[in-house]
Design goal:
By secondary structure, the chain is mainly α. The protein folds into two domains: 197 residues, Growth Hormone, Chain: A; 40 residues, no CATH class. The protein is built from ten helices and two strands, in the order H-H-H-H-H-H-H-H-H-H-E-E. The chain has a two-stranded antiparallel ribbon with strand order 1-2. It is elongated and about 60 Å long.
C-alpha cells in the first residue's frame, strides 16, 4: 500500500481519522463529568443519543453512501463542539443547558462517525491486506484513546466555568479537520471492492482518469519505441519478439 503516492496518502488519511475518531469518541465520553448539571443524567442522555446514532446508521448509510454520511457526521460533531464557546462568551449561568445540548449533538455526530469508520475502512483496503490495514487502524485508534483523557483534563488548567468548554473546543477542531481530510477518500457504496493492490490503485478513479492512464501506458509503444510482435515459424509455433519502428521525418 505504500508503493504508490495515491495509496500512501489514502492510508495516511484513514489512519489519521482512526486516531481522531478515538480521541473524540472517548474524549467526549470522559468530558461528561465536566459538564454542568447532574452527571448521571448527562451520562444517560449521552448513552441514549449514541444508541440513536447507531440505529439511524442502519437505515441511512446504505442510502447516502459511506463518504457523505461520514463527512456530515464529523462536521456536525466538530461544529457542535466548537459552538460551545458562544454560550461561554455571550451567555450566563442560565444558558448552561445550551452547552450541554451542543455537547449531546457532538456526541451524536461522533458516534455516527465511529460506527461508519469500521465499514468505510474495511471497504477501502484491498482483500490481500484488509486484515493488516484494519489492525493498523485499530493501533492508531488505541493511540487516540490514550491521548483523549489528557485533552479531557485540559479544563483543569483553566478551572471555573471555562473547564467544560476548552476540551470540547479542542475535540471540535480535531473533528472538523479529520472530517475534511476524508474528502480525499473515494466512495465505496455499490462498487466492486478492491481485491489486489492494483485494484486499490484503480479504485475510485473516474473513467477519464482511467483513459488518461491508458494513454500514458500506450506512449511506450509509440513510434520510435520497441513494440512486441509475434511471428509464426515454419513449425507453426508462435514466437514473440520486439520490433523497432522509426518515425519518418
Amino acid at each position: 500500500m505504500f508503493t504508490s503516492p495515491v495509496l500512501l496518502l489514502r492510508c495516511v488519511i484513514i489512519f489519521f481519522n482512526w486516531l481522531a475518531i478515538y480521541v473524540i469518541y472517548y474524549g467526549i465520553g470522559l468530558n461528561v463529568g465536566n459538564l454542568s448539571g447532574n452527571v448521571y443524567l448527562n451520562f444517560i442522555i449521552s448513552s441514549l443519543v449514541e444508541l440513536f446514532a447507531y440505529t439511524t446508521l442502519l437505515f441511512v448509510m446504505d442510502k447516502t453512501g459511506r463518504k457523505k454520511i461520514y463527512l456530515v457526521s464529523m462536521l456536525l460533531g466538530g461544529i457542535a463542539c466548537l459552538a460551545t464557546i458562544f454560550p461561554l462568551i455571550y451567555g450566563t449561568e442560565a444558558h448552561t443547558w445550551v452547552t450541554i445540548t451542543l455537547s449531546v449533538v457532538g456526541r451524536f455526530g461522533v458516534s455516527s462517525a465511529f460506527g461508519i469508520i469500521y465499514v468505510f475502512s474495511a471497504e477501502l483496503f484491498p482483500t490481500v491486506i484488509r486484515q493488516s490495514g484494519m489492525g493498523s487502524g485499530c493501533i492508531f485508534g488505541g493511540l487516540g484513546g490514550m491521548i483523549a483523557p489528557y485533552i479531557s483534563d485540559l479544563g483543569i488548567l483553566l478551572g471555573g466555568h471555562h473547564a467544560s468548554v476548552l476540551p470540547l473546543v479542542v475535540f471540535g477542531g480535531i473533528t472538523v479537520f479529520a472530517g475534511l481530510t476524508s474528502l480525499g477518500l473515494p466512495e465505496t457504496q455499490n462498487r466492486k471492492l478492491p481485491e489486489t493492490i492494483e485494484d486499490a490503485l484503480q479504485f475510485g478513479r473516474t473513467e477519464n482518469d482511467k483513459k488518461e492512464h491508458g494513454l500514458l501506458e500506450s506512449k511506450s509503444y509509440s513510434d520510435g519505441c520497441a513494440r512486441p510482435s509475434c511471428e509464426i515459424d515454419d513449425g507453426g509455433k508462435a514466437g514473440c519478439g520486439t520490433e523497432q519502428h522509426t518515425s519518418l521525418l
